Amino acid sequence: MPGRLSRRSIAQYIATGLVEGKSKTVLLQQLAGFLVDTRRTKEIDLIVRDIEFNLAEKGYVQATITSAFDLSAETKKALEAFVKQETNATQVSLSSLIDESVLGGVKIAVPGREIDQTVAHQLTVLKTRFKKA
Amino acid sequence: MNFLSQFAHGAAEAATEVTEAAHETAASNDLFTALGIDWRLLILQIVAFLVLVALLGKFVYPWLMKSVDARQDGIEAAAKATAEAQKAAEENKDVVAALLAEARKEANDIVGTAKLESAELVSASEKKAQKVAERIVADAHDQLNKDVANARKVLYNDTLELVGLATEKVIKTKLDKKTDSDLIASVVKAAK
Q1: CA–CA gap between residue A105 and residue B184 (Å, rounded)
Q2: I need a labelling partner for B141 at 20 to 30 A (CA). Which of A19, A133, B130, B174 fits?
Q3: Domain encompassing residue A113
Q4: Over the stretch A53-98, which tens digit does the pLDDT of each residue have?
Q5: Residue of chain B with shortest Cα separation from A100
Q6: Could you tell me the sign of the dihedral formed by the alpha carbons of A18, A23, A24, A27, in that order?
Q7: Which residues in chain B are closer than 8 Å to A68, comparing Cβ atoms?
Q8: CA distance A109 to A93
Q9: Which residues of A touch B159 (CB under 8 A)?
């Protein structure tokens, strides 16, 4: 009976597959099948995060952009360029998230890092950093 | 003493006279009988009286006189002592007056010193009380300053909260897609 496959190995396999251009659907089905078979479905979030890390190491960065309003194509382009510059990635994939509670501005989350330039965050900083103890 | 001796002597003479009279009147027994006097009994009584006088003179009177003399001596001695005491008192009057004057002076000195010391004590107490009062006032000032500082801090924090809330409200109403895009662009530009 083979030993338990580590999360890192699984993530590396999937990331490599994605980079090599294998079918996303096939890779996802394989991953889902494996997790169900080994009863490790609870690890899915951690595995996805590890895959993102692996992809980032290979120059493929998945960035999550959170903003209060839907972003224009121009803004998205600017953000993509910004993420590329910041992470030295060769390819950047943006996923947008609308959250009105951020009021304005943008929050960029890349594997292992987060840049929060939202108005809500700035206000929180104002209220906490300048608050006298 | 003299009086008793004279009395005894007189009594003896009287007894002698009575005896002679008895002899003289022996012849005239009829007179005694007529008067109802028993001359034998009379003589016996006279002898007994003389014996009594002699005994008193021999034993009682000397002792009595001695005690009277002793008492008189005592009274005289007491009078003499009184006189001497009076004299001594007279003599000591000046000394007593001087002592009294000295005592008065000492008493005045003591009273003066006591007044001075009490004044010093009062002064010291006043100074101490003043110092304590000053300290209390200083503490109160410090506490007041601390309270004011705390109140300012609370006010500052509350103001900060209010500013934050107000800004949030204003931004919520004023920020639109366009301004948000501009804001993001400026953020990206600043980050570069």
Answers
A1: 5
A2: A133
A3: 7-129
A4: 999 888 899 899 999 989 888 889 989 999 988 888 888 989 999 9
A5: B172
A6: negative
A7: 175, 180
A8: 12
A9: none
Check CB contact of B107 with chain A, cutoff 8 Å: no
User: For A65, what's the count of Cα atoms within 13 Å in the CB-facing half-sphere?
Assistant: 26
Task: Give the integer Cα–Cα distance in Å for A122 and B177.
Answer: 19
- How many domains does the structure of chain A reveal? 1
3-class DSSP state for residue A115? Answer: strand
Residue A39 inside a domain? The answer is yes
pLDDT tens-place string over residues B122-153: 999 999 999 999 999 999 999 999 999 999 99
Q: What is the pTM of this model?
A: 0.51
One-letter identity of residue B131: K
Reported confidence tier of residue A1, pLDDT bands at 50, 70, 90: very low
CA of residue A9 relative to chain centroid, distance: 19
3-state secondary structure of A75: helix
Output phi, psi for A113, to 5 deg.
-155, 150
Query: Mind telling me how many Å the CA of A123 is from chain B's nearest CA?
Result: 6
Query: Residues of A with CB below 8 A from B179's CB?
Result: 104
What is the predicted ipTM? 0.71
